[in-house]
Design goal:
Length: 651
């Protein structure tokens, strides 16, 4: 059987090494990038990527400036518009960027903000006591990465305008008319040389704007996308308490949202807490309206306070006896929906993309605020307190049962280190970074995959039937499920808080299911398991979905593999020069021979795989909850709403 060359590492020859030694390294080799050129040369350092995520980051940076005005009490309306040609406009009714000449740069303050890195009003605390901006690079980075940008400022009854091209000012800021109000209007066209297609996602941006409005009570944000003819408006008087209700809207809840708000040593701390009857934790943390996806000191302080208060209350109510062990953090967070928001004067974010808050003092600020607020609520609401604590005690009992099942899995892993699960056909390569594991639907397809694989680096684990829906199952029942235990054992890295990626045996885990309804269901069940209990796999780019062909089209001696309905229609149209076409639809992987499976789906040189990622955690959580949770009406509504979007339906 033919095999593709799979090169694991590079090799440096002696001749090339000698050549490198002979090369001179002088001062002339040191390149100094001036102005915004560094941003254009290395955009990923400033916006994370040059894909859709980075494109969205440009929009968010400009909107953050308007949000900062709102947090300063100077703005209550923001309008965001995506035009048909890809231009994005952000308008607010804030104070307007100053247009006076700056004493240091000798240009207008507007031009300094737009063209100089680390220029802004967010350093000294005079312009903004609280802001999402830290480095003063947001607006200038957007300017540098835009092929064209225009800023219009309304101040003191006048309208001013300045235009830029790839970061450079095209004219001096000039007065162009009168204005009856104040504010800033920024319009930009992201540079296609850097981003390629300007593929903005309305839903992803709308979700982020929704979060901003939850975190900024009283802000009216209108979002319009002319390309898709869609628009929406966000306004939440209830703030993050409304956010908690939104996250729990399709879940049975134990109580109304608990809202905590307190100023501690100059830090504004807000928290909203609501428990549901489910088994997963949904917690989001924010600092100055920035979504800190990787948490930080504020999240640590919240979790410490939550565990402490619930244990204290459980002992006061005699629900925990003197000789009982304390509840641990995992017990107090099962079924929890929580939002933690802090607003502080000098945030210490990790990197320009601001995914983690580092200020150490914020931990104690949040902890003291939550201890006081939550303790008061539980004392004043005994029935709700009892429901919450009983939920936590149930979680503790389930945790103990799950621990015993997990210990069994770990012991089996240790005992079976040489052979691993009997169903697993392992590869010969021992370096995890070079290994991949196929999770294959069914024994038949598993047999073909075993025969067709490259045994050097490809391992096969066939799965029997549909695995357990973990969205509806407590941890102990999940770990009692044979197929799930087999997956955990094969991967070797553990699950949940005990997960250790350094022990992961394969750095590519590839889900390979049939191209029919059952295959889609099995794939969804597996994704639910990984999202809820092995999220680090997804976050670190280890999880993939195989793309087997839908059709084989033969024309005489020519054979074509087709992976989508659209591709089939285009190929059929192209091949109808009087040729007789033989079209075969593949619904099951077992319908292909081992050689065909290798050629189409497993050969790294020719296959197509989709890497699984979570760009929007809130949206992903909602989708899994809607599709896989206990509540039927939301799932029915989702199916009805998206029925017309179905492309491949096998009846």
């Amino acid at each position: 059987m033919a095999r593709a060359n799979f090169l694991f590492g590079g090799r440096l020859t002696i001749s090339s090494l000698e050549k490198n030694r002979n090369n001179e390294y002088t001062a002339e080799d040191i390149e100094v990038l001036g102005g915004l050129e560094a941003v254009r040369r290395r955009p990923g350092m400033y916006i994370g990527s040059t894909g859709q995520r980075g494109l969205h980051h440009l929009v968010q940076e400009i909107v953050y400036n308007s949000i900062d005005e709102a947090m300063a009490g100077c703005c209550d309306r923001v309008e965001v518009t995506i035009y048909r040609d890809g231009r994005v406009e952000v308008a607010d009714n804030g104070r307007g960027i100053p247009i006076e000449v700056h004493p240091v740069t000798s240009t207008s303050a507007l031009e300094a903000v737009m063209t100089i890195l680390h220029a802004g009003a967010k350093f000294g605390g005079r312009g903004y006591k609280v802001s999402g901006g830290l480095h003063g690079v947001g607006a200038s980075v957007v300017n540098a990465l835009s092929s064209w940008l225009k800023v219009e400022v309304k101040r003191a009854g006048k309208l001013y305008r300045q235009e830029y091209c790839r970061g450079g000012a095209q004219n001096a800021g000039e007065e162009v008319g009168e204005a009856s109000d104040t504010g800033t209007i920024t319009t930009f066209l992201a540079d296609k040389e850097i981003f390629g297609n300007l593929n903005y996602d309305f839903d992803a941006l709308a979700q982020r704007f929704r979060e901003m409005c939850y975190l900024t009570k009283g802000l009216d944000l209108h979002f319009r996308d002319q390309r898709a003819d869609r628009e929406t408006t966000f306004y939440f008087e209830g703030g993050i308490a409304s956010f908690a209700r939104y996250l729990n809207k399709n879940r049975p809840v134990l109580h109304k949202p608990i809202y905590i708000s307190k100023m501690v040593n100059g830090t504004e701390v807000e928290a909203a807490i609501q428990y549901n009857e489910g088994f997963t934790e949904t917690t989001f943390s924010f600092a100055n309206c920035i979504n800190t996806q990787d948490g930080g000191s504020h999240l640590t302080g919240f979790r410490t306070a939550l565990t402490r208060v619930i244990n204290d209350c459980a002992r006061k109510l005699k629900l925990l006896k003197e000789d009982d062990a304390n509840l641990i953090g995992d017990d107090t967070r099962e079924g929890l929906v929580a939002i933690i928001s802090v607003k502080l004067t000098e945030p210490q974010f990790e990197g320009q993309t601001k995914t983690k808050l580092g200020n150490p003092e914020i931990k104690s600020h949040v902890e003291s605020a939550v201890v006081e607020g939550l303790s008061q609520y539980l004392e004043e609401h005994p029935p709700e307190a009892k429901k919450i604590i009983e939920k936590c005690l149930t979680s503790a009992r389930a945790r103990e049962a799950a621990r015993k099942a997990r210990d069994l899995v770990i012991r089996k892993t240790a005992l079976e280190a040489a052979t691993l699960p009997g169903k697993l056909t392992d590869c010969s390569e021992k370096d995890p970074s070079r290994c991949e594991l196929y999770l294959v639907e069914g024994e038949s397809a598993g047999g073909s995959a075993k025969q067709g694989r490259d045994r050097r680096f490809q391992a096969i684990l066939p799965l029997r039937g549909k695995i357990l829906n973990v969205e509806k199952a407590p941890p102990d029942k999940m770990l009692a499920h044979e197929e799930i235990r087999t997956i955990i054992t094969a991967l070797g890295a553990g699950i949940d808080n005990q997960m250790d990626l350094s022990r992961l045996r394969y750095h590519r885990i590839i889900i390979m299911t049939d191209a029919d309804v059952d295959g889609s269901h099995i794939r969804t069940l597996l994704l639910t398991f990984f999202f809820r209990h092995m999220a680090e796999l997804i976050g670190n780019g280890h999880l993939y979905i195989a793309q087997p062909p839908l059709y084989r089209i033969n024309t005489g001696k020519e054979q074509h593999w087709v992976y989508s309905e659209k591709e089939k229609e285009e190929l059929v149209k192209k091949l109808k020069g009087g040729k007789k076409l033989e079209i075969q639809r593949y619904k099951g992987l077992g319908e292909m021979s081992a050689q065909q499976l290798w050629d189409t789906t497993m050969n790294p040189a020719t296959r197509t795989t989709l890497r699984v990622n979570v760009a929007d955690a809130v949206k992903a959580d909602q989708i899994f909850r809607t599709l896989m949770g206990d509540e039927v009406p939301p799932r029915k509504a989702f199916i009805q709403a998206h029925a017309k979007s179905v492309r491949n339906l096998d009846i």
